[in-house]
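Re: [help] complex structure
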Amino acid sequence: MKSNVTMKDIAKELNVSIVTVSKALGGKEGVGEELKKKIVECADKMGYRLNSLARSMKEGYSYNVGVIVSEKFVGPPQAFYPLFYQYISQSLGEQGYSMIIQVLSLQDEENLVLPRAYSESKIDGLIVLGQISLPYAQLLQSCEIPIVLLDFYDERIDIDSVVSDNFCGSYEITSILIKSGHRDIAFIGDIYATSSIQDRFLGYYKALLESGIKLREEYIINDRDKEGRYIELAFPDKMPTAFVCNNDVVAYNLILKLREMGFNVPDDCSVVGFDNSVHSVISSPQITTMGVNLEEMGKTAGKFIVNKIRKENKRYGKVTIKENIYQRESVKSLVKINERLT
Amino acid sequence: MKSNVTMKDIAKELNVSIVTVSKALGGKEGVGEELKKKIVECADKMGYRLNSLARSMKEGYSYNVGVIVSEKFVGPPQAFYPLFYQYISQSLGEQGYSMIIQVLSLQDEENLVLPRAYSESKIDGLIVLGQISLPYAQLLQSCEIPIVLLDFYDERIDIDSVVSDNFCGSYEITSILIKSGHRDIAFIGDIYATSSIQDRFLGYYKALLESGIKLREEYIINDRDKEGRYIELAFPDKMPTAFVCNNDVVAYNLILKLREMGFNVPDDCSVVGFDNSVHSVISSPQITTMGVNLEEMGKTAGKFIVNKIRKENKRYGKVTIKENIYQRESVKSLVKINERLT
DNA sequence: CTGAAAGCGCTTACAG
DNA sequence: CTGAAAGCGCTTACAG
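Output below.
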């Protein structure tokens, strides 16, 4: 048992009723200014802390939001999911909510055991971070609790989700190359491999189209075999002046390869990547890249879930968040300064 | 208002008292086996969820632990702090606790504003992840709530803490080199720079001492100037066969440098690092390194805080956790296989 | 084994 | 403006 100061203690101290204390501390109508001030001061002096549990009992809301992440994402230090937590937390905090994080064990996911925070009614809403098995997602959906999926989406379930926009991001970074005067731009990646690589390819294509640059087949350079292993790149006869790589690892290796071949980056060729992973920072030169906008995504998910809690029928659907550009050193502008001015 | 199933509903359904339902569901003494089973089944069927808030009200415990981290650690993708969360969460989960994470804003840290989770009585204990300003730590200490510091320690305050053991880790990895037959082992790092580098140097020294290897001054190679910028390494005339680097970045660059100089790693020289950072993985060859044992540290902090909540006077002091070795490819054994057998 | 009563700390109508 | 009463959902003694 904690020996905490309660409203009762303050009421006794000041010879007023508990109701009045509650109103004063809660900023509600119906207390004289002077008395209110006295109560607030007294509470402060006595080290009073609100017992939000008691309030929650009355209201039926815990003012907590749960974030669950599958155990399969726990571990590898390259993982970026944990970076979301802090942004979600900040967003929730601003809205008066706290964040409860729970790792969903592989067994619980498999056996469809609901997260404890939920079964103990500790949370008013749930953010699911990253992919989760379809049956589990369906289980969650059947619970009468607002849910937002973060960085994950499945057509077979109809839950609001916040995802990154690969297509847009690729379009943007390719456009930057074009604006920098590049017209011979290759795309490196297996455009049949995953839907996100496909989207990145299509964003690249859109940027070309928009600038009237023809898509050349030999400028679509495959980087992996059917098993997903990276392969030697087959460069076209006429070297492009810029490469859009489907991720930073590929960009990193490309830069090494180009150097071997006698091409310097960015002086001879420009290179851009995706993901803003450590490879982009560790590379020399550092790689200009598009990366998931963690902050924007986390804060959006935080806002959505709180809004959903407040208005139970609120729907958002699948919301895409633009990626962030990280301008570094691997792109050279072919446009002369005086040309730019004209 | 949620329209949740409560014990009252179950009681009505089964024509028993709420007390009996509470006992049955709580696994307490004093209910007939048969009735108990019936109640549990009924609760299941009706989709009953415990309202832990109500329980907490009675008991005075929230069964939540807060984790706060200063905003100054939020952002850089190299940060490893977020990786702690999942381990802490797992540890707390096993003990029946949930984890509430809160980022402490720079303003709140500066203005000594207590974390909301605390001032709203949402948590029974607090884990502080990473360094926090001394005044703030003192403020927290003055609160009547159990606290554990994680990866941070300050002599001026007397709060239980869980930190990584640089000294031991360095001793261990150096010993491994020695066991592999190396005797000419250099240490690379500015031994006056930080206390953790100092500890790593001393661990290295201890391993030498233990094996009767003399510490040679020219084998302590400084790697940075007074402003902390990395400098050219001054290699000794007689090249060592192994290098203990004070971190992975240094090890990474050393390997490149050695290659330039015509030394191959690990065939001509072995190299080990510290931190298990991405540099150790990205390097070619990958670097054998000692790294913070995130899992062990997180779980230890989780256990400590719960124990402290349960027994209010429990003290641990400063607890060091051994680092983990990550054996990779940058060490060559000089011991022949048949020698090993003898 | 079963259950009526009291209480955890607060808030929300509703009276005065 | 001030406050007595009821209630949020549960648990803990204590009777029967």
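The domain at 1-50 of chain B is CATH 1.10.260.40 (434 Repressor (Amino-terminal Domain)).
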